[in-house]
Amino acid sequence: MKQLGVLDSAFVNLEHPTTPQHIGGLGIYDPSTAPGGFVRFKGVIANFERRLKKHDMFRSRLVSVPGDLDRPYWVLDANFDVEFHIRHLALPQPGDWRQLCILVARLHARPLDMARPLWEAYIIEGLDNIPGVPKGGFAIYTKMHHSLVDGAGGSSIMSVIHDLEPDPAAVPEGPDTVMVDVAPGALYLGTATAVNQLKNSVKMVGSAASTLKDLGKLAWGVAKKQIPMPSISSPRTRFNNPVGPYRVFEAAEFTLQDVKLVKDVNGVKINDVILAVVGGAMRHYLQHHNELPDDSLAVSIPLNMRPRRGVSDDNNQIGSVFVEVHTDEHDPIDRLKAVYASSQEAKVFGENSPLVDVLRVAGVLPPVFTKSVVQTYVNNELTQHLPLGISSVVSNVAGAPFPLYSAGAEMVRYYGLGLLTPGVGLFHLAFSSAGIVTLSVLGDRESMPDPAFYRECIEKSFKELHEASLKLASNAKASEAEKAKKTAPAKSASKAKATPAKTPVRGRKAAASKADTASPGKPPAKKARATTRKATSRKTDAVASVFEGNNETNVVSLPGGSRS
């Protein structure tokens, strides 16, 4: 039995029917790598069950404290039933990408049963008309409560539900004996709550003093212009409307090689490239609907707080900062440079501001108080009266650089799904694995009724940025070649002038005549070798030219091009 951490408890307290606090993922698998070349549903369940024996969090449920006066506890469920958590579905004909997106959006919109272990998995078959999906391929959609895991810890979840080898039998079995907890009684919980309240009161006093001190340092740094202050008054858009209970899902894909090309040419980070693509996509989308503000929109980006806080037993170690994505910039390169500057300023602010931990407030106070505030806040749509205009959350997660398998089937694609908050109806999640970067979109259905069009906006935004980066690289290469060409004759002339003639002209002619007479066959041979070397050089240049000419925007997309 273990009590939830402050941030873990915050996500439980923020749970609401219209904004459930779970995250998810959609993996697509190739069964040809499994023993026998196919996978049965029973095999997937057996694989899950075998691996879950080693990880208590998937078998743990919440136990609330009487009166919700303290943070709840994780208790190993004595009645854990793996078949309740894993369901089997199939797409109806024709089984295309649009149908899969609609199904995943509906599954993700449903809140988890808070009385059971907080995760579910769905095996989805019938992906017969999705371009790029292997024959017999299937999908696994998983969702788990945010109190179980954060984005930075997502790789541990991937390792829990996947194997490193195509043959699961090669992995040692877990223990046959599974431990469970005896549910604590009201007396024990009441006593523990009284003790914790005393401890928490002391901690809160110390924490408040420390926070006030840090805020003072922050204010001084901002006043001295040593710490940049992020924009907190960005324009509000349709994505700031009250979030309803229904969702939409879409995704675009790019090669990691193309993303790195943009990064290297412009001297930025991959996260900056993702933010610039999102800024361009939002610009195209809102411009299409005649809703593009004159000023730049801003997004929230999660921060991994583990390096700052050190080792902790809490499942969540995240903070957040705001970054402008410069939707007011038409030129993609100018937008990327501006995003890079904004992200650097946000990084400095995040390193010096206690406000990155503001989410902890929802977990510090007793649940009975926090939950009532959340219900009032959401039900009365109070986000409409806040000046803060954050149009989206953008998260970037690096996946495993090696193959992963489920019941022997290799994972060929993975799309991450985040969560929506009452005032932010759009979430982007970038996930890189196996040379592919997927950019998934989760949106409120009322705010974004046309998710397929938004996916096209993402692809258009990346194509513009990639082509502009290719042009920059080409111009830089041509400039270097021109510079080298101009300096070459000067060096040759200087060398010729500095070298004295060792033999008179008559002597050189005589020597040449003597050489021609003595060795009549050698000069043609030398000439032939020179011709061969010249031809080889032309061939090498042609091959290099072919590769350079083929370095076009490569937007790989499992979805078909005519989705709507």
UniProtKB/TrEMBL annotation:
It comes from the Bacteria. SUPFAM superfamilies: CoA-dependent acyltransferases (SSF52777). Its EC number is 2.3.1.20. Gene3D superfamilies: Chloramphenicol acetyltransferase-like domain. It catalyses: an acyl-CoA + a 1,2-diacyl-sn-glycerol = a triacyl-sn-glycerol + CoA. It is an enzyme of class 2 (transferase). Residues 316-465 form the O-acyltransferase WSD1 C-terminal domain. Residues 477-564 are annotated as: Disordered. Keywords: Acyltransferase, Glycerol metabolism, Lipid biosynthesis, Lipid metabolism, Transferase. Residues 524-537 have a biased composition (Basic residues). Residues 487-504 have a biased composition (Low complexity). Residues 6-274 form the O-acyltransferase WSD1-like N-terminal domain. Pathway: Glycerolipid metabolism; triacylglycerol biosynthesis; Lipid metabolism. Pfam families: WS_DGAT_C (PF06974), WS_DGAT_cat (PF03007). Belongs to the long-chain O-acyltransferase family. PANTHER family: O-ACYLTRANSFERASE (WSD1-LIKE) FAMILY PROTEIN, WAX ESTER SYNTHASE_DIACYLGLYCEROL ACYLTRANSFERASE 4-RELATED. This is diacylglycerol O-acyltransferase. It comes from Spongiibacter thalassae.
